[in-house]
Design goal:
The relative contact order is 0.14. Strands 21-20-24-18-17-27-30-29-32 form a 9-stranded mixed beta sheet, with no helix packed on it. Strands 1, 4, 6, 7, 8 and 33 form a 6-stranded mixed beta sheet that branches. A 6-stranded mixed beta sheet has the order 5-9-3-2-12-15. It contains 4 helices and 33 strands. It folds into 2 domains: 219 residues, Immunoglobulin-like (Sandwich); 224 residues, tricorn interacting facor f3 domain (Immunoglobulin-like). It is mainly beta. It is flat. Bound molecules: 2-acetamido-2-deoxy-beta-D-glucopyranose (NAG) (2 copies).
């Protein structure tokens, strides 16, 4: 017989190597959720969910791993995930297994593991907080709006907890809007809830079995702000030792996911209604926070140079050529320069080794990003020793890139591909350690494996950010 710990270890190992779908039934039922409270905050263009669970070990041996379930929809757009013990201000080890699919009740799910700081004895309890940030893809409701009309959005999520364990008591709460309304379910069974005091609570519900019910809840809420989404960001950072500068250039493909206009855009109506001054789903200005003491700012779009931007200290305000209504797109480029010394540290051992640390994003506030391609161009012949990014990376690659002013093999380019980012991770820093020798040889491109979502990593970059809803 295997002991419980080796079963768990075996199970984890197993998870890493199985190809194809696994039956979620193999997750051991060692816990019971005594109380599970989900809070979904809709105040931003993405959803911030806090899951507060009191759990009890119902196994006959101490247990350390708690498995939690994510629906495919949440997993596909997840930006941040972390967990803490309730009342303890420190992240605990947890990870989502990105490659492994499970099937429960006919639905595909993803599973994550929270590894408690110490095992919990049989019959004992503890409380966990799980933080999830993801793009819920709110839909305008009922669809189009008139100029100046208030915007409502529809959020669809699972009504009941989807858990590997029995749940004794469950509530679901929405917050972050002045009004909420539950759309009546089609069979008209439940009475629809409404709320206008800034939050809506569904439940409590009792005795829910593992994976019992995947049925959705549709909630309509007021949201009188744009929903900026960058479908693609190309962020290039050029290191020049010679000029002692770090040059940034960013190309954005921006779309506003807010409600489209019912009857096209009329500039006359827009001016008449002073709508530019009113709050609504339209986007009139973008505000970005740049590194301190940036200079030589510029902005261009398809038409040419854009002059309607202002820089006030580290804030960059850009007014696009036209207000961006729902579904409207805007492609633009911004650039600026900083002193290299703000970002570069040389290793004090005479080894010609440098460490460059730079922010992962500087983009507009309250924004989601589908795809981000972050490139750092190092001096010609630089040899990359390490690349470290605190976020789940799709791909990291080091190549040599020739531009017309390079004489030899060209600049060394470090490319990091990321997806599902949000503005709040802008404070996270990535690092590149490299060596510049006079005769650095051409290095073959190499790739660094796809990383897993680890909260441990988030710990380094996110500890300065107030991560979530305060419960
Ligand atoms: C993001 O990148 C992936 C892979 O490169 C691509 O398949 C996908 O279509 C891109 N998404 C968007 C919105 O550009
Ligand atoms: C922005 O660029 C994308 C990709 O090149 C293109 O499909 C889209 O039409 C552009 N949008 C505008 C408004 O120029």
């Amino acid at each position: 017989m295997l002991s419980a710990t080796s079963v768990t270890a075996f199970f984890l190992l197993f998870l890493n190597f199985v190809v194809g779908d696994l039956d979620a039934g193999i997750i051991p039922k060692q816990w019971e959720n005594l109380e599970l409270h989900r809070t979904i905050d809709v105040s931003r263009s993405y959803s911030q969910e806090l899951i507060d669970i009191r759990i009890k070990n119902i196994h006959n041996e101490p247990v350390r791993q708690y498995y939690f379930v994510l629906t495919e929809e949440v997993f596909d757009t997840i930006s941040l995930f972390s967990s803490t013990l309730k009342g303890v201000d420190a992240y605990i080890e947890s990870a989502i297994m990105p490659e492994q699919n499970f099937v429960a009740n006919g639905q595909t799910i993803k599973v994550g593991v929270v590894s408690l700081p110490s095992p919990i004895e049989p019959g004992h309890e503890t409380s966990l907080l799980l933080n999830l940030v993801y793009n819920s893809k709110y839909q305008p409701y009922p669809g189009h709006v008139d100029l100046g009309e208030e915007q409502k959005l529809l959020l669809r999520t699972n009504r009941f907890p989807i858990s590997a364990y029995d749940t004794q008591k469950y509530t679901l709460e929405f917050q972050g809007s002045s009004s909420f309304e539950e759309l009546q379910s089609l069979n008209g069974e439940e009475t629809a809830e409404t709320a206008s005091n800034g939050k809506m609570v569904i439940g409590p519900f009792d005795s829910i079995m593992p994976y019992q019910d995947f049925s959705p809840i549709d909630v309509v809420f007021e949201h009188n702000s744009p929903l900026p989404r960058v479908s693609h960001l190309k962020r290039d950072i050029w290191v020049s030792h010679w000029a002692s500068s770090l040059q940034f250039e960013e190309y954005y493909e921006l779309i506003n996911d807010a409600a489209p206009l019912k009857s096209g855009f009329s500039r006359a109506d827009y001016m008449k209604g002073q709508l530019a001054l009113k709050k609504g789903g339209h986007l009139t200005a973008l505000e970005m926070i740049l590194p301190d003491s940036s200079e030589a700012h510029y902005c261009t779009d398809l038409v040419g140079a854009v002059s309607t931007f202002k820089v006030l200290k580290d804030h960059f305000f850009l007014k696009p050529r036209f207000p961006l209504f729902g579904n409207w797109k805007y492609n633009f480029t911004v650039g600026w320069t900083n002193q290299l010394s703000q970002f570069l540290h040389s290793q004090e051992d005479g080894s010609d080794t440098y460490i460059l640390s730079f922010p992962v994003l500087n983009g507009p506030s309250d924004t989601v990003y589908d795809n981000v391609s972050l490139s750092v161009y190092l001096p010609e012949g630089a040899e990359v020793m390490d690349v470290w990014c605190p976020l789940p990376v799709q791909k990291t690659e080091v190549t040599a890139e020739r531009s017309y002013f390079d004489l030899n093999q060209g600049h060394t380019k470090v490319n990091i591909e990321l997806k599902n980012l949000i503005d709040r991770i802008a404070a996270s820093e990535a690092f590149v350690r490299y060596k510049v020798t006079s005769k650095a040889l051409y290095k073959k491109p190499f790739s660094i494996a796809v990383s897993v979502f680890t909260a441990l990593v988030a710990y380094f970059s996110l500890k300065h950010i107030s991560l979530m809803i305060d419960s």
